């Protein structure tokens, strides 16, 4: 795959409340243990800590990214792209926006948990300078599975390197 085929009219913007139905639809098709509407609403209520981004083509929501920025660290809490829109650079564009915003808010490092079997997401994170830093045994349910802890120890450097990519 090449991430250079990003949809030309794709926009990345902060999540609005009216995006939630479309976000929930993507969430339930993307995860075996999806977040609930209540969980998304709670995230959106954490002003100053939670920063959430949506990818839109026109009015259509195609993906989203939920992050926290706390104490110089960005935590990626949730990211997904609609199944029919994957492989077109949307996840990459969401991370570019979310990590750039986190850096501007003082984050120097970033981290996340990912299912050990989720190689697509791991490959996406590796592009942004994340490396495996640990393993949380039986972290996930439905099905039970280990999480890999992935960290990016130099967010500024990772963004600079990715910015130079063609
Ligand atoms: C992970 C996910 C968000 C990636 O979104 P996407 O828009 O399809 O990803 P992109 O098209 O931006 O791809 C960017 C890079 O990610 C990696 N990648 C994405 N999909 C991949 C796949 N199926 N296999 C291997 N690598 C993949 C590649 O490195 C790719 O770069 P390349 O195209 O130059 O090879 C998407 O697959 C998804 O929503 N999965 C279900 C939800 C999920 O697992 N979220 C992560 C939870 S931790």
Strand elements, count: 7
Largest sheet: 7 strands, mixed
Outline: globular
Q: Output the structural class.
A: alpha+beta
CATH class: Alpha Beta
Radius of gyration from the alpha-carbon trace, in angstroms: 15 Å
CATH-defined topology:
Aminopeptidase
**Total of DSSP H or I helical runs spanning 4+ residues:** 5
What is the level-2 CATH architecture name? 3-Layer(aba) Sandwich
Question: How would you characterize the overall build of this protein?
Answer:
This protein is globular. It is built from 5 helices and 7 strands. The two termini are 14 Å apart. With 166 residues, it is of the alpha+beta class. The chain has a single domain, classed as Aminopeptidase (3-Layer(aba) Sandwich), CATH 3.40.630. A 7-stranded mixed β-sheet has the order 1-2-3-4-5-7-6. The mean pLDDT is 94. It has helices at 20-30, 37-44, 90-104, 119-127, 155-164; strands at residues 10-14, 50-57, 60-70, 73-81, 109-115, 131-140, 145-152. Bound molecules: coenzyme A (COA).
């Amino acid at each position: 795959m090449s991430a250079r085929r990003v949809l030309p009219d794709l926009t990345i913007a902060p999540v609005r409340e009216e995006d939630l139905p479309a976000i929930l639809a993507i969430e339930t098709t993307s995860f075996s243990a999806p977040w609930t509407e209540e969980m998304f609403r709670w995230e959106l209520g954490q002003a100053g800590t939670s920063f959430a981004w949506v990818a839109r083509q026109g009015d259509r929501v195609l993906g989203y990214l939920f992050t926290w920025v706390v104490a110089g660290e960005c935590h990626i809490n949730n990211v997904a792209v609609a199944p029919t829109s994957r492989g077109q650079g949307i996840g990459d564009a969401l991370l570019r926006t979310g990590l750039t915003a986190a850096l501007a808010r003082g984050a120097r490092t970033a981290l996340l948990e990912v299912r050990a079997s989720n190689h697509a997401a791991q490959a996406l994170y590796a592009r942004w300078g994340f490396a495996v830093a640990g393993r949380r045994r039986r972290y996930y349910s439905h099905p039970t599975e280990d999480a890999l802890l992935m960290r990016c120890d130099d967010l500024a450097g990772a963004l600079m390197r990715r910015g130079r990519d063609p």
